Every structure is written in structure tokens, then in C-alpha cells.
Amino acid sequence: MKVLARVRDAAVQRALADAAALLDAEVLYADPEARDLAAEASAASADVVFVELREGEDVARHREDARAFGIGLVVACHSREECADAAAGEADEWVLLPAAADRLALRLAVAAERARAAPTPRGENGAAELIRYHEALHDAATGLPSLPILIPSIENWLEADHELTLRYLHFVWFARIERTYGAERLDEVIGTAADAVRDFFAREQTGEHVLTLDHAGDEDFILIARTPPHRERAADAAALSHRIERLVRERIAEKHGPEFAPLAGLYIGTAPITRDPKIRVERLVYRAVREAARAALNVEEWERERKAERLRAMLREGAVRIVYHPIVVTETEEIYGYEALGRGEYPGLRSPEVLFQIAQEANLVWELGRLLRRKAVDEIRDRLEPDQFLFLNVDPHDFEDPTFRDMTPETMGITDPSHVVFEITERVAITDYPRFREHLAAFRALGFRFAVDDAGSGYAGLGSIANLAPDYIKLDISLISDIDSNFLKQNLVETMVNFAEGQGARVVAEGVERPEEFETIRELGVHLAQGFLFQRPDTVGAAA
Amino acid sequence: MPDARILVVDDDADSLEIVRTYLESRGYQVATAADGKEALAMLEEARPDLVLLDVMMPGIDGWEVARTIKDHPEFSDTRVVMLTARSDFTDKQRGLRAGADDYIVKPMRLEDLGRKVERNLEAARRSA
After folding, report:
1. Between the N and C ends of chain B, which has fewer C-beta atoms within 10 Å?
2. Which is nearest to A330 in space by CA: A498, A525, A505?
3. Number of residue pairs across A and B with CB atoms under 8 Å?
4. Distance (Å) from the C-alpha of residue A34 to the closest C-alpha of chain B?
5. pLDDT at A91 over 90
């Protein structure tokens, strides 16, 4: 989208620049004396003219020109009187100054949309622009329309019904999806969630309704329904949230795999939109969006408290289970060691990602970490061969835990610390580097070893991994999947192996699922491998 | 795999011509595009098995073209080989995120080009 602006005021220019950034639009500035703005806009293939009126200038003339060229017109007004003039002159939109960037952006988008909807012959670029514009107003991942283009239908419904219901669906995506599988995958999962939400309301909701995305938090949805609003208690809202959440999780599990399902959380808030002829519909809608979003956050707060309560109970009972992933030597396929992973035993707390997220929110990360480490060491102690290694995950917060820093092989019940490897993800390792090195030196002095986890997932370059001088480099699954047919991945892994050998470190390939992948990493000289190809993660009883 | 269709995308007309002549001499059907936009517009018609993609181009750059191809439901099976002047780790990671299958460092040697084109077509045939 392109805006041709004729503005004198520097503050207005700043607001416009911010609005343009929100819309991903380009702003061209016309000469302050320019008169034929619509013609100039058309020549520059702009979509909207944004004009601050001069003394005695006529809105209607601008409007006429704009209409002739199929261009939207937004008038910047310094007073209520000017707004009235702009309305009388039939400007597409007007805005009272000073205006916040998001309000201004909305007016610009709506004006552009009106101009486009008007039956005016466009230039030869019309079709291409229309596609671009459609893309700007529809979310790429979900295909949902954005709020501005729904305003006219909301206006009609309000006219007829006087009151509508707005529901704010606040999604919590555990960051792990994006971190592990990338932003594109998260987009796909959100797309699936959108379809599920749409289907849910198509089934449940009698009467018309539309679903859209929040303009600010693009992972949140807004539903506007032609049903009379009724006030809900937090518990009712939570019950509705749960029902939709269940459907969303079912669909995600079906389409993307069961491991994704627990990573979606949903909270719903509701607010009425009540017709008020004195207030513009946009404002009514955005006010309701804010109110419903706040209500959704209250539900989240309420739920979080309950989950924290359950986590406390679980920790008191020590109800966690440790699963051990075998790590094999690529040359011989012998078991080199195990990576210990913790799971909650309570429903809703089983997924490790969810478990840690809740622990973090409830300020129980240290307690959880201690329990998991103690169990991980205790449960495998008698079964581990003397030459096998135990890999333990370390959360960045653990470094802050005073008992963690005082941890010695004796207090952990470990007889041979040189066979215990702490795994630290590369993201953490490089974000707080100086402190990290300090801790590392202390653990090294005690005889422990350590691994950089998720290497190659895109955060750290080879140089930053080199600086950490790890004993092991665990290659992220994104580097391993389909490596047999991707030569770029092969080259990257080969580089990693060469580099590790120069440093006396060993390379572990994570997420090896197919024999072809295993064959390829073996040829590339990767020392160790881990993944479902060897064994589903299981408790040590089954592994031994 | 003669008869395979290859789309070469480079804003440098000379290097485009050299690559085209070389690939045609090896029996491939070659289409060319001078920038990312043109390349994307040609996909439908050219239906290439493999796209050779210069990274540094004005407008839509090679990374974006690669990502667009790999994200497209119809063309995601197309092999994408990047032509890049840099070959450091960061650059390769970037290629990986864009979904590229292989890369060739410029200035390229034609045998290297021939070998990489061949191994990618072979890999595509295997996984088809």
C-alpha cells in the first residue's frame, strides 16, 4: 500500500510514519503547495491521499478528484468543525489530531478499501495491486480477513441488532514450536487452529458470525457474533475455552502430530458491542476488543493459578517420571549413554515444555529441576554400565539456583562425574556468555562434561559454539531430517564434524528417524546418534 | 538425467548465458530469468525440476525466491540450488532456513555445476 501525504505538522508526519510501518505501507510526500493530489497519487500508483487542509480549501473537490482516480481520501482535522466539514464533503475517512498510529493506520486501510470497492476503472496495475491489497488485509497463515475490512458489515449488524458479542480468543503457543520447528511450522499450526475455531463456532453458534485476527497480537483471534451478549464468570469462560481448546488440540494432533497438541493453550474473554450513534463503529469495536482481551487475560490468570497449585502438589508427591533416550555410537550402534528427560505424572503437566513453562510462571523452576535431576540420577544409577554416559538437561534458571551452584558429584550421588554430561541449549549459551563461562569452569573443575544442545538451529554460528569449547555438540533435528537428500545439510554437518574433531569434541545427531539419514550421518563421520530410529524414548527398565 | 528442465535465475546476463549454454550442451532443457520476480512468474509455465538461483539479485533476492518455491504447495518438490559468492557457515544456515537443497560457490567451475545439478536431479528422482 502507498500513501501520498500533504502534511505540514511534524507530529502528524511522525504519526503517519508509524501508521505506515504498521500497514507495511510506503509514504510519499507531496509538495505543500500541491493541489491536484489525486492525480499525483494516481501517477505514483498510490492508494490513498492523506491531506491536512489549508485555509479555505474544499473537501468536496479533493473527494471528487480522488473518486475519479479511484483513490481513497483521508482528511486530517484539527477541530471537530473540520471533522464535520470532512464528513459533509464525503471524505472516505477523517481523523481528529493528534491521532495514535494504530487509529490512523485503520483509517488509511479502510479508506483504501472503500476506494477499491467503489466501481471505478483502475489502471492496468489494478489486478496486481488488488492481489497485494488482499494479501495485506488477509492473514497469510490463516486466510482470515483483518478487522478493518469487516467494519462495514459490523456496522450493518449493529444497525439491525443494536448489540453484538465480541469474543477474544487468546492463544498461548509454547515458544518451543517456533524454536524447534521454525516460524513456518508455527504458521501452519496456527492455520489449523483457525480452521478448528471456525468449525467450532459454525457448529455451536446459531446466527451469523465472523472470525478475524487481532491486529496487535496476530496469534489471537476475534469472533464477532450476532447473538445477545451475556456476562460470563471466569469459570464459564474457562469451560468454553477448554471445549474449544480440546477441538483445536485434536485437529493439531491429527494434522501435525501428537507432540504439537499440548503446546497450544487457549483463553477466551467476552465483551458486548453496543450501538451508539455518537461514536464511530471502529471505536466501539476496538473498545470491545480491549475489554474482551483483558477478560481473556483474567481467565488466563485464574487458570495459571490453578495449574501452579497442581504443580506444587505434584512436586510435593514427587510425581515425575524420567524417560531415557538412548544415544548410540554410529560406527558400532552400541549404546553410548542416555539422555534423561522429565515428564509430569499429572494430566495437563505431562509435556515437558508445558511443565517447564508452568514451573517458570509459578516460580518453581529450581524445585522442579532438583527433583528431575535427583530422579534422573537415582533411577539409572544401578543400570548404567561403567563406560556409559548420562546426559542431563540444564535450564538457564538452574544456574541461579544456589543449590545447583553448590552441587558436587557427592551431593548428586554420582561416583564418576566424567560420565555425566550437562546439556545446555545454544541459545542460552550465547545470550549470557560471560556468566555462562564462569559456571562452566566451575563444573569442569568438578569433573563434569558438557554439551551444546540444538546446535545449528540458527541462533549461534560456528564461532560462538567454538568459544564454548564443549565436549559434545548436539546437532539440531532440523539439520538431520532428510539429510540424505539435502546436500546443503550434508555440507553443514560435515563442517561441524571437522570443526569438532579439531577441538577434540564429539558430534551427536539428534532426531535420526530413517535408516537413510543414519547412513548419511555415518558417512559424514558423525560420532553419535539419537532418535526414534534406535528406540522410542522409554523408561530405563524397558531400555535395559 | 537428460531431458530434465532447469530454470536458471541470475541478474548477470553473461553468466546466465554461460550456464545456459553449458547445461544445454549436457542435454538439459533450460529456461532463464533475469530476476526473482520473473523467476516466480515463470514457474507455472516452465515447471522446472531444478532451479539454479543466484543469491544476490535486485528486488526479490534468491533466499526469498527459494522460500517461496519451497513453501508453494505445487512447487515444493522442485530442487533448489543456490549460487552464492560467500560460503561461510552463516550463509549456509541461511540457505537451510530458506529450504535450499544445495549450493554452488561463485565463481563456479562448470564441472562442479554439472556434478551438483546431476546429484540433485538424482536425489529428486530417488525420493519421487
Report:
1. C
2. A525
3. 45
4. 31
5. no
pLDDT score, position A541: 44
Contact across the interface for A458 and B97, Cβ inside 8 Å: yes
- Residue B29, beta-bridge partner list: B5
pLDDT digits (tens, 9 = 90+) for B39-73: 999 998 899 999 999 988 888 889 889 988 988 87
Assembly ipTM:
0.86
Q: What is the mean pLDDT of residues A361-382?
A: 88
Structural element, H or E, at residue A63 = helix A59-69
Alpha-carbon gap, residue A393 to A388, rounded angstroms? 17
> Which pLDDT belongs to residue A235?
67
Compute the CA torsion angle A284, A286, A291, A297 (nearest 10 deg): 160
Structural domain includes residue B128: no
Could you tell me the pTM of the whole model?
0.61
Q: Is residue A26's pLDDT more than 50?
A: yes
CATH code, B52:
3.40.50.2300
| Confidence tier at A366 by pLDDT (50, 70, 90) | confident
Which residues, at least 6 apart from A495, have a Cβ–Cβ distance to it below 8 Å? A462, B89, B92
A147-300 maps to which CATH number? Answer: 3.30.70.270
What is the domain range of residue B85? 5-122
Shortest distance between the Cα of B32 and any Cα of chain A, in A, equals 23
Sequence ranges of the domains in chain A: 2-137, 147-300, 318-543
Question: Which of A461, A486, A488 is the closest to B90 by Cβ?
Answer: A461
Provide the residue type at A228 as one letter: P
Architecture of domain A2-137 in CATH?
3-Layer(aba) Sandwich (3.40)
pLDDT, average across residues A74-87: 80
Chain A residues 471-490 with a CB less than 8 Å from chain B: 478-479, 484-489
Query: In angstroms, rounded to a whole number, what is the distance separating the alpha carbons of residues A400 and A403?
Result: 9
Q: How far is B109 from chain A (nearest CA, A)?
A: 18
DSSP letter for A53, please: P
* Contact between chains at B92 and A492 (C-beta distance less than 8 A): yes
Facing residues of A172 across strands?
Answer: A265
- Which residues in chain B are contacts of A489 at CB distance < 8 A? 96
What phi-psi label fits residue A298: left (phi over 0), alpha (psi between -120 and 50 degrees) or beta?
alpha
